[in-house]
Amino acid sequence: MSLLADLVNLDLSDNTGKIIAEYIWIGGSGIDMRSKARTLPGPVTDPSKLPKWNYDGSSTGQAPGKDSEVILYPQAIYKDPFRRGNNILVMCDAYTPAGVPIPTNKRHAAAQIFSNPAVVAEVPWYGIEQEYTLLQKDVKWPVGWPIGGFPGPQGPYYCSIGADKSFGRDIVDAHYKACLYSGINISGINGEVMPGQWEFQVGPSVGISASDEIWIARYILERITEIAGVVVSFDPKPIPGDWNGAGAHTNYSTKSMRAEGGYEVIKKAIDKLGLRHKEHILAYGEGNERRLTGHHETADINTFLWGVANRGASIRVGRDTEKEGKGYFEDRRPASNMDPYIVTSMIAETTLLWKKP
Predict the structure, then answer these.
(1) Count of CB atoms within 10 A of residue 180's CB?
(2) For residue 181, what are the CA distances in angstroms to 56, 129, 153?
(3) Residues linked to residue 191 through DSSP beta bridges, in sequence order
(4) pLDDT the model gives residue 238
(5) Alpha helices of 187-318 — where are they, by DSSP H?
(6) CA distance 189 to 176
(7) Residue 2 pLDDT
């Protein structure tokens, strides 16, 4: 095994200028991630300089077998924390050979919204709080939980320490450092209310980069849990009953919201979000109805309400924002399995481009 580890950690720069690029894309379910690697002649820092590639879409649920070729367009580059050196992770989106985005390519539509001059002028910032649950591999039960049983009730686990309360910290810290190494704007981590559940935060990041970073951070987390022999779940309610679900709270601000008088801009934006509540809920993740029940720090899925420092609201405004008269707000509705391309672009579209009827 030591020889295997030595080879896995081999430093290629001593003997070759070639690098390995791991091309990453979103699979047919809209939440699964796929990747494959290729050799490049030397270091690359600009995604536009990378070659397009292809894959068998019939094996990912994204194309029929009789016309299975799907084309990968490189969009963003990050340092590879697994191979290190000049090796890279490449976030891609997927197109037909004719250049048409395939149905599961949500990045393309998001990029169009984020390139709209009215959106560009407002420099939208996002901070996304990605919650997830670590599961024991063979039984799909949270780490730290007795198999077939339950731990003590919620209360002592949030931001906890100790072997009887905090489960999976090595994985969480490894992920934190790997994201920092990769160049992801990860801003923090914490243990969540349900034991075995954790959260990392990405941002503030501008426009579509927030979504690229969330997807690459998810990829890195999946790779680390693969090594650790556990399973990461983004299910919004992995354990039924009196246990918190998992969300992806999305913090948002625009240039106008961050400026003097921004609080009034925030309230107008929230009003528009309320008018399109149903459309947003439909796009905010699968199985969210199991999480948005009006309990466990959520608002009921059919109800839109906002408040200052209210964690039972659809939209929460922080006390500092209210006090300073400017700042940001938090959309607490997105599920942990949401597509950040859809969520971030939809928030921008509703608040900056959509006109009230």
Answers:
(1) 13
(2) 31, 19, 36
(3) 198
(4) 96
(5) 209-228, 255-258, 262-275, 277-283
(6) 7
(7) 67
Tokens found for residue 120: 């560009």
Q: Give the sign of the dihedral formed by CA 211, CA 349, CA 334, CA 166.
A: positive
Q: Over the Cα atoms of the chain, what is R_g?
A: 21
User: Alpha helix locations (H) across 103-231?
Assistant: 107-114, 117-120, 169-182, 209-228
Contact 75, 93 (CB under 8 A): yes
Report the relative pairing of strands 19-26 and 88-95 from DSSP bridges: parallel
Query: Sheet of 69-79: strands edge to edge?
Result: 33-40, 19-26, 88-95, 69-79, 53-56
- Which DSSP letter does residue 336 get? T
Residue with tokens 């309360």: 165
Amino acid making up residue 34: R
Report the relative pairing of strands 19-26 and 306-308 from DSSP bridges: unpaired
Helices 107-114, 340-348: inter-axial angle, 10-degree rounding: 30
Which tokens hold the place of 302? Answer: 């059919």
Q: Are 347 and 273 in contact (CB under 8 A)?
A: yes
Q: What is the pLDDT of residue 176?
A: 98
Comparing CA positions, the residue from 129, 126, 127, 135 lying closest to residue 200 is 129
Q: How far apart are CA 55 and CA 61, in angstroms?
A: 12
Taking 50 as the pLDDT cut, the residues of the chain under it are none
Tens digits of residue pLDDT in 7-34: 888 888 889 999 999 999 999 999 999 9
Taken in order 2, 23, 52, 45, the sign of the CA dihedral is: negative
Amino acid letter, residue 244: N
List residues bridging with 74 in a β-sheet. 92
Contact 353, 119 (CB under 8 A): yes
Tokens standing for residue 12: 């290629």
Cβ proximity of 104 and 55 under 8 Å: no
Which two structure tokens, joined as six digits, stand for 41?
């002649």
Which DSSP state fits 13? Answer: G
| Tokens matching residue 300 | 């009921």
